[in-house]
Automatic annotation (TrEMBL):
Its main location: membrane. InterPro entries: ATP_synth_I. It is found in: Cell membrane. It is a multi-pass membrane protein. This is ATP synthase subunit I. GO terms for cellular component: plasma membrane.
Length: 155
C-alpha cells in the first residue's frame, strides 16, 4: 500500500475547478434526462407496435411515473450547480427519497385512474426502461474521461 495515497490535507478546489465540475455535472444531467426520455418513447413505440394503443399508453405512463419525478430532481440538481455551495448531501438524499415516493404515488395513480384498461406489463417495461436508461448510456460509451462520448467521436 502506498503511504502517499493517504493524506490529512483537505482537497482544495479552485474556482476554475468548481466551474469545470459544475459544467460537467450539468451536461451529464441533461444527457441522462434525454436518454431516459428517448428510452421511454422507444419502449412505448415498441409496446404499441406489439400490443396496440393501450400498451403504448401504458408504457408511456410507466415511463412517466419515474421520468417526471426524476426530471424535477435533475432540475433541482441543475439549479444547485449554479449556486456557490451546490447541493448538500442531505438535500440530495431527501430529493432521492421524495423522487421514490413520487414514483410510487404516480404508479398508484395509474392503477387508480387506469383500472382494468392498464397493461401492467407495458407499465413495468416503461418504468424499467427509464430507470435503466443510464446503463444504455454507459454501454454506448457515455461518461468516459469526464464527458459523454457521442457516437462517432474520436477517442
Amino acid at each position: 500500500m502506498h503511504a502517499s495515497l493517504h493524506t490529512d490535507k483537505p482537497l482544495v478546489l479552485t474556482d476554475a475547478d468548481r466551474a469545470s465540475i459544475n459544467a460537467r455535472a450539468r451536461k451529464e444531467l441533461l444527457y441522462i434526462i434525454l436518454a431516459q426520455a428517448l428510452v421511454g418513447l422507444f419502449v412505448a413505440i415498441i409496446a404499441g407496435m406489439v400490443a396496440g394503443k393501450v400498451a403504448a399508453l401504458s408504457a408511456l405512463a410507466g415511463a412517466g411515473a419515474y421520468f417526471v419525478p426524476n426530471l424535477l430532481f435533475a432540475l433541482r440538481l441543475f439549479i444547485a450547480t449554479h449556486q456557490p455551495k451546490g447541493a448538500s448531501p442531505v438535500m440530495f438524499l431527501m430529493g432521492e427519497m421524495l423522487k421514490m415516493v413520487a414514483a410510487v404515488g404516480l404508479l398508484w395513480l395509474i392503477a387508480r385512474v387506469g383500472g382494468d384498461r392498464v397493461s401492467w406489463l407495458a407499465v413495468v417495461a416503461g418504468l424499467i426502461g427509464v430507470v435503466k436508461a443510464y446503463l444504455l448510456m454507459l454501454a454506448l460509451g457515455g461518461f468516459r474521461s469526464g464527458s459523454v462520448v457521442k457516437y462517432g467521436d474520436k477517442k
